[in-house]
């Protein structure tokens, strides 16, 4: 396939973004280069710049897309615990997006599309925290606790640190068990 045919054949922007996400999932965001992506897509080394301007622009697009997908995943989950499960499931299904989304030094944090998608995801998380009976006492701290649990679990999962404990189990189901164990209502001690 010639460069001319590859460029005009389909959606080059989508093809470059997909190739970038593949590289990030396999080698991490630091391995990403526009020149390499152009080679993979069979286009000139200047072609990616027409869609993303530079590497930071490409990573910004990946983060914005990630936050939009993340917000959708959270919106479909009822309640805080299930949103935590959706958080872990999203990280497992979209590891490249997840790696970029939480590294603001990689992208343009003031990008309008990124800000809108990030705000939507944040609102989905906040809405679930607001449903907690005691969240009114300190909703911000409750949100940080919930985020820390889900994000910490997802990060440990993606870095391979939960390979032993997961041992073939569905990570999202394991997270549901962990969250249920930690947030179970205390039992009332029996009186003697």
Explain this structure to me?
It is built from eleven helices and no strands. It has 192 residues and is mainly alpha-helical. The radius of gyration is 20 Å and the shape is globular. It starts with a helix and ends in a 10-residue tail after the last helix. Residues 1-8 and 185-192 have low confidence and may be disordered.
Features:
disordered C terminus, 11 helices, 192 residues, disordered N terminus, 0% strand, mainly alpha, globular
Give a concise summary:
Helix content is 70%, strand content 0%. With 192 residues, the chain is mainly α.
Show the helix and strand layout.
Elements: H1 3-9, H2 12-27, H3 34-41, H4 47-52, H5 55-75, H6 79-93, H7 95-101, H8 112-130, H9 139-158, H10 163-166, H11 171-182
Helix pairs in contact: 2-3, 2-7, 5-6, 5-7, 5-8, 6-7, 6-9, 6-11, 8-9
Beta-strand percent range: under 5%
Find the structural class using helix and strand composition.
mainly alpha
Kindly state the percentage of residues in helix. Answer: over 70%
Spell out the helices and strands N to C: HHHHHHHHHHH
Q: What integer is the average pLDDT? A: 86
The rounded Rg comes to 20 Å
Terminal Cα separation, in Å?
82 Å
The DSSP helix count reads 11
Quick one: biggest sheet? none
Question: What is the number of beta strands?
Answer: 0
Unreliable residue runs: 1-8, 185-192
